[in-house]
Write a structure and sequence with these properties.
The complex is a heterodimer.
Chain A: H1 3-12, E1 34-36, H2 43-49, E2 61-66, E3 69-72, E4 85-88, H3 89-95, H4 99-102, H5 113-121, E5 127-131, E6 141-146, E7 152-162, E8 167-175, E9 183-193, E10 198-206, E11 211-213, E12 216-221, E13 226-233, E14 239-242, E15 245-248, E16 253-262, E17 267-276, E18 282-291, E19 296-305, E20 310-319, E21 325-334, E22 340-348, H6 352-360, H7 365-377, H8 386-404
Parallel strand pairs in A: 1-3, 2-6, 5-7, 6-8, 7-9, 8-10, 9-11, 9-12, 10-13, 11-14, 12-15, 13-16, 14-17, 15-17, 16-18, 17-19, 18-20, 19-21, 20-22
Antiparallel strand pairs in A: 2-3, 4-5
Helix pairs in contact in A: 1-5, 6-7, 7-8
Chain B: E1 2-11, E2 14-24, E3 29-33, H1 40-48, E4 54-62, E5 65-66, H2 72-78, E6 80-83, E7 90-94, H3 95-106, H4 111-118, E8 127-128, H5 134-147, E9 152-156, H6 164-179, E10 183-188, E11 202-207, E12 210-215, H7 217-227, H8 229-241
Parallel strand pairs in B: 3-10, 3-11, 6-9, 9-10
Antiparallel strand pairs in B: 1-2, 1-4, 4-5, 7-8, 11-12
Classes of the chains: A alpha/beta, B alpha/beta.
Chain lengths: 406, 243
């Protein structure tokens, strides 16, 4: 590492994030990394993983990271016929020289203390996925990151490279078992969607009350490419702050859909920024927020037009408790005449009229609430594989049921 | 089957229904006709037990049980079903999802026939009442009532704001309800559907929150079309009292 950069990053370790509560990194220790070239998912982990909607028979995981231990199938059985690889980033750095050049290009290491910590102390765990040109990987690629220890910092760095004309569906679940009191997850994700390629990325977060979560994501979508993001977070956290930035090339498109179900005393600051960087690019950001207990959610959405393109933002919120709070912060910026940007935002409560109607059809009040909430959080995300859709449905059902119990 | 005694119903502290008595026997079809704002919908809401209305006096007895304070979902399970005049649009909730739930819960086996009668295939996959036309809305709501296999169906203006084609489909569905043995209380202010029904057992004119006259449809409708609701009720009342 160039010493100047190192010095800068050491300084950046004191730089709080623009958004979200500040965390004292010295509260968290680091473990030594371990890499296993076989995937052996214990019974306990299987149970934990079921929290993100994955059931036993579907546990066809390609990469698992528990704390600072990474497991992967070195033989790459399920993806072999697609010549597609998924392996720990550290292993990828050893095996492929080009991987180093892909790191820290879409997320700046000096962005804040979390990126700096990951750069300085990260063990290059996290996954690297490479999809060769003109390859359509029809089966979803599953990965799972879990924290099981207290007072620990989990660092992960994920890289996905979908080469020209290819298509991949990646599903990542991040979770902790109940009872983890105080941990910090910092995940760096850099996704490259090359010319005319397509990546759908589904992320399901199921953390717990004591966990602080700071993912940092950058996505670059090349000419004619498409990036579809579906993010669901549904369990209590201490705090969660993320603000992925997606940059679009000419004729490319991105859609980012989030379901944020705040609960407990959690503070959630969740946003997405899409930059229309090339002409005829299109962007859509949809966020559906529900809050119960004493949770607080800031839902940020930003579309910036640097080229002639189209963008739409929709932020909808549903308050399910007296003590919770939702702030919807849509932002549109146009630097190019001819760009068309729009947004709609609304925050409300469950309409009494809707509950009354459903109850007149024989549904109890909690059932009616669950039905209305489930309808509210439903987002029609196109072209996600049916198996993934099923998992998301299961999670959304859980969210709706839990919301009805408030 | 249903006995409403001296019912008074308030909405936001204002008395809308006053001293209403109504007795519906098994399999009967009763029509309540009256001008807008006469309390017809409020009466049906009270019988269904909707929280928006408040029964301040009187009682509602269904199959021998006093249900005046029974929550609406319990009444629905007992066999009372209400077709809303204007059901609310609920985004993200599929019409088919609610229909499936009712089919399962109420054990409705002939739902395909009902679906054909009301042509519900056109909107099964859509969100509940979102973007439905007037006719679609009425047909969809009536379909959900049919799926409930009700012992008594309370139909709030199923004939208002629909085209002639939908009106015929709705009349067919009501006739199907009667054929299956359901009692029906049908509220209308135009009466346009009545000639299409297999039979009407009793017709009530409702004015200013009260039932002003109860009689046969054949004596009530011609007078209403000639003199309007209020004068018809007066004339019929005088005839009844021998004046």
């Amino acid at each position: 590492m160039v010493s100047d950069l190192k010095e800068e990053l050491i300084k950046a370790l004191k730089k709080p994030s623009t958004f979200g509560p500040d965390i004292d990194l010295s509260d968290y220790g680091l473990e030594d990394p371990k890499i296993y070239d076989r995937l052996e998912v214990s019974e306990e982990l299987t149970k934990i993983i079921s929290r993100i909607g994955l059931e036993n028979e579907q546990l066809n995981l390609n990469y698992v990271q528990v704390d600072e231990s990474a497991m992967y199938d070195a033989l790459g059985r399920s993806l072999r016929k697609y010549n597609t690889r998924i392996l720990p980033l550290r292993k990828a750095l050893d095996d492929f020289t080009y991987v180093k050049d892909l790191m820290w290009r879409l997320v700046r290491p000096d962005l804040d203390k979390y990126t700096a910590a990951n750069y300085l102390y990260g063990n290059e765990l996290g996954y690297f996925i490479y999809v060769p040109p003109n390859t359509k990987v029809s089966i979803p690629i599953y990965s799972c990151l879990a924290i099981t220890s207290n007072n620990k910092m989990q660092l992960a760095h994920n890289l996905i490279y979908v080469d020209e004309g290819s298509e991949a569906h990646v599903v990542t679940g991040c979770l902790v078992p109940h009872g983890v009191k105080n941990s910090l997850h910092i995940g760096i994700s850099e996704f490259y969607v090359k010319r005319n390629a397509r990546l759908t990325f589904t992320m399901i977060h199921a953390w717990s009350e004591g966990v602080h979560v700071r993912p940092r994501t950058g996505v670059d979508v090349d000419v004619g490419g498409e990036y579809v993001n579906y993010y669901v977070t549904y369990s209590p956290v201490a705090s969660l702050q993320t603000y992925p930035v997606i940059r679009l090339g000419a004729g490319s498109k991105a859609s980012s859909s989030s379901v944020i179900a705040g609960s407990g005393y959690g503070v959630y600051d969740v946003g997405t920024k899409i930059i229309l960087g090339g002409d005829h690019s299109t962007a859509e950001i949809v966020s559906k927020v529900i809050t119960k207990d004493s949770s607080e959610v800031n839902a940020r959405s930003d579309i910036t037009a640097e080229a002639v393109g189209r963008g739409h933002v929709e932020c909808l919120g549903l308050l399910l408790s007296q003590k919770s709070k939702i702030s919807s912060i849509p932002s549109l910026t146009s630097k190019k005449p001819g760009a068309t940007l729009s947004h709609e935002a609304a925050i409300g409560v469950i309409a009494q009229e809707e509950l009354e109607y459903l109850m007149s059809k024989g549904f109890k009040e909690d059932e009616a609430k669950s039905i209305v909430t489930r309808g509210f959080i439903d987002i029609n995300v196109k072209n996600i594989p049916p198996t993934v859709e099923l998992e998301i449905d299961r999670v959304l059902d859980l969210i709706a049921k839990s919301a009805a119990s408030t | 089957m249903l006995v409403v005694k001296k019912l008074e119903v308030c909405v936001n502290g204002k008395k809308i229904v006053e001293d209403v008595n109504l007795s519906v026997r098994a399999g009967e079809l009763h029509v309540i006709i009256g001008p807008n704002g006469s309390g017809k919908s409020t009466l049906l809401s009270a019988i269904m037990g909707l929280p928006r209305v408040n029964v301040c006096n009187g009682s509602i007895v269904f199959e021998g049980s006093d249900i005046t304070n029974t929550p609406s979902y319990e009444r629905a399970k007992m066999g009372i079903a209400l077709a809303y005049q204007n059901p609310p649009s609920i985004r993200g909730v599929k019409f088919s999802e609610i229909a499936k739930n009712l089919i399962k819960r109420c054990g409705c086996s002939d739902y395909t026939i009902m679906s054909k009668v009301l042509r519900t295939d056109e909107f099964l996959g859509r969100d509940l009442f979102v973007g439905f036309s007037g006719g679609e809305r009425k047909r969809a709501e009536l379909y959900l009532v049919l799926l409930q296999n009700p012992k008594i169906a309370l139909l709030d203006e199923p004939d208002s704001g629909v085209d002639i084609e939908s009106l015929n489909l709705i009349a067919d569905a009501i006739n199907l309800l009667i054929k299956r043995g359901s009692s029906v209380v049908l509220v209308t202010h135009s009466g346009s559907i009545l000639s299409k029904l297999r039979r009407v057992d009793r017709t009530h004119i409702m004015l200013d929150g009260r039932i002003a006259y109860s009689g046969l449809v054949d004596e009530v409708l011609p007078l209403i079309s000639k003199y309007g609701f209020r004068k018809s009720a007066e004339i019929l009342g005088k005839i009844l009292s021998g004046e």
